[in-house]
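Batch job 17 of 40 flagged for manual review because the log was empty.
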Amino acid sequence: MKKPWAISRRTTLRGLGVSVALPLLETMTPAGEPAAKAAAASPTRAAFVYVPNGVHMPAWTPTTTGSNFELPSILAPLKSVRGDVLVLSGLTLDKARAHGDGSGDHARAMAAFLTGRHPRKTNGVGLRAGISVDQFAATKLGGATRFPSLELGCEGSTSDGACDHGYSCAYQTNLSWRGESTPAAKEIDPRLVFERLFGGPKATETDAARTRRERDRKSILDFVSEDATRVRGTLGVADQRKLDEYLTGIRELERRIALAQPVVEVGQAKMTKPVGVPADFRTHARLMCDLLVLAFQADLTRIATFVFANDGSNRSYPTLGVPEGHHDISHHGSDAAKQRKIRAINTFHIEQFAYLLGKLKAIPDGDGTLLDRCLILYGSGISDGDIHNHDDLPILLAGRGNGALKTGRHIRYERETPLTNLHLSILAALGASVDTFGDSTGRLEGLEK
């Protein structure tokens, strides 16, 4: 009797302390089922990408709506994926407003962005923010993958101390919340994310394998080479090519992570630290993008968050000609020179987002691409960093969500339309429908038309 699956979707390549999941292959299609039908069943993934301190809205917002809009200067890096993106104007994050609590817009913006809840003003005791949309989806869908969710970032998380006018640092440094008092801390070290994704089921085995690899200067793929050869021998030509490209991508990413590690002086010699965050932001961000893409490609997770920088971040961007801190110049007071520098930072962030989308689009998935199976939200909980307003937010939604979206358009919504209406729509597209979320008033209309 012919088996219903030639290879299970859950097949992994295993070695000492290493577990490498496989991408979706044609041979994983149920026997007798057309590839197009199987592609339609490919799971929908969702990622939520956050940028701090708002943007320069005049250079962000298209002047016309519909499909014939022109990309403004900040969004120009999206040219190659323009048809895969929705620009959504007019959405509001009301729960980031003060509501009697005074200052603290950066903390509230980040805490409310995915929760739609007003965070309780506290310096650490009695946190209350609410479950975030990514974690709500993970509770519904996370059992289908090795990792229910993945939390990534380029600046660290903390739950200690007060950061923004009496608000706990937990609010300002965490985007994802498993519950109203439990933030889901993000990982910022690409090496540790790599080890988590491709390590074995037991931490002790993973640690031993890492030590051995570093000692012998081996790749994780050296540990699974026999298993990879065995599986490859069962595949057709197209699947062999797809597997080879996937494994080559893993090896290349592993090499880039090693090269990006900080170098320290040890006497006359230079020595690479085994673990460390790349000093160059562009290198750091793109490594994290590649890790996110691999996690989606191998179906290790279907839910992720990625924080480019915490809200209120005062990171400088000297390579862009911006030696000042981002937060400092976001209070531009209509100064043209400061606004020019803000635009440079905003455009740089969009360049990294375009890189992420381009990587997803380059990976075939059934009769489409991996990007076609995704919903990728990008935005900030602040509109203009100078006045800290939370209406008319800079929001993008990329990917077609397995046919849930008609992309390549600019849509403008009525004032005060809750951002959480978009969260409701994303949950519905993921198959995790709920009647309300945060301060939502209903699903966001017009996404599929």
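Reviewer: the log was empty due to a logging misconfiguration, but the result itself is present. The first helix runs from residue 35 to 40. Unflagging and moving on to job 18.
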